[in-house]
Amino acid sequence: MRWPTSTAGMGGRKRQYLENFLLADAVQKAVMRSLKCTAAEVEHECREWFRTASDRDGGRKKRTAKISDE
Length: 70
Hints:
Largest sheet: none
Distance between the termini: 43 Å
Mean pLDDT: 75
Number of domains: 1
């Protein structure tokens, strides 16, 4: 499981990967057990969640729409 938890452009800091955190394995196993899904499905959904994390609550979409309306 190599899910980056931070992205480039963070002041030169290197990426951290979720697999390095002790809680990552427990979360994956709990999700797989309760939702009856595969490790690949869990990884895919986590990647999507982290990829779109910067636009929670639609902030980026609202700013883009506001600029295009002007």
